[in-house]
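Final report, results section. Input specification for complex C-07:
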Amino acid sequence: MASNEEILAGLAEIVNEETGLAPEAVELDKSFTEDLDIDSISMMTIVVNAEEKFGVRIPDEEVKNLKTVGDAVSFIANAQA
Amino acid sequence: MSAPTLKQAPLQENTRVMGVGAYRPSVIVTNEDVCQWIDSSDEWIRQRTGIITRHRAPADVSVIDMAEGASREALQKAGIEASELGAVIVSTVTHPYATPSAAASLADRLGATPAPAFDISAACAGYCYGIAQADALVRSGAAKYVLVVGAEKLSDVIDNTERTISFLLGDGAGAVVIGPSDTPGIGPSVWGSDGSKWDAIGMTHSMLDIRDFAAAGKRDTALSEGEAAVTEAALWPTLRQDGQTVFRWAVWEMAKVAQQALDAAGIKAEDLAAFIPHQANMRIIDEMAKKLKLPETVKVARDIAEAGNTSAASIPLATHRLLQENPELSGGLALQIGFGAGLVFGAQVIVLP
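Structure output:
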């Protein structure tokens, strides 16, 4: 079971690999689209890689609810619980 | 009196791809052209899809015309006469007649009559489905040489103003001849379908809706749901996709299928000379290559930049370009995988001709 900090660090790594953004720019209150400028295709790539990394399932209809990095961290933490 | 012994066709152990042909239609549609129809930019399209241009066929060039162009080159490269063909298979979703098939007309034009000829409907997986069938036909002894063609005139089934798929699509045809071989040339096909995602890519409405819509004008009753769908969109059915669902399925599930095709062939990623996936979107291609952990020595086909997504034609077209630009790849191993509307998929490792 990963802690929220570990999930955030893991997500930051995935975002960095997909977009080249510095991992420290990936903060809980940052919006994927508005702050981090991540498009829908990149978002799906991040989702697929997060599923693999954290062993969770993130349904398509859930992806649009993941507006901020914090939303994604909470979803993954709940899905793992 | 002894009972007669039934004779069955002798089996053929190995098969191979003998030659590849391509037909790229003359009209070039640039991203600037596309931006007249949708609110977008060259940069946005390149970034999201990797597409710079697509080829489209003029009105007087049909699916069969393009198939013929590609087939003649494939036969010539394979060193086979059309009269030697034991079957002609055309994979297409844009031949505008439910019947008769494009393949029957193509076989006649090429001089392959009376070879059995039929079309298959497996969208962007159609070429790999065709290779699976051709390989089985040759190995079973049902045919010695089989022509497999992927031919599409997708420009006939798009709505230039919609944003999910139309701007990705191009026209074209690619063809190969499959025949017997002294050494293994086509690995086991890993192919399948998932009809639970039937709605993910497809036409806006059915042909029956068009018929019923036309009839509705002559009566007083309200429009049915199907008829209303026709009114709201346009009379002519066009393609749509749920891009996010398809992207995710393509990257995630198809990388697994590609790996299964490698395993079935007893091949490792580093043994490959080339990776030739269906040219759906550059980002899908890149992501699949990453998931398969392809070393940099493996040439990845990226015909999509110039040709767009040509559905069943994309893999043979991409193969043709790869061999033209890198003749040293001939004789090397290539992993090919098609996937698309159905949803359907097919993959195999082949020896490049």
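Residues 32 and 38 of chain A are 6 Å apart (CA to CA). The helical segments of chain A are 4-19, 40-54, 60-63, 69-80. This concludes the modelling results for the funded period.
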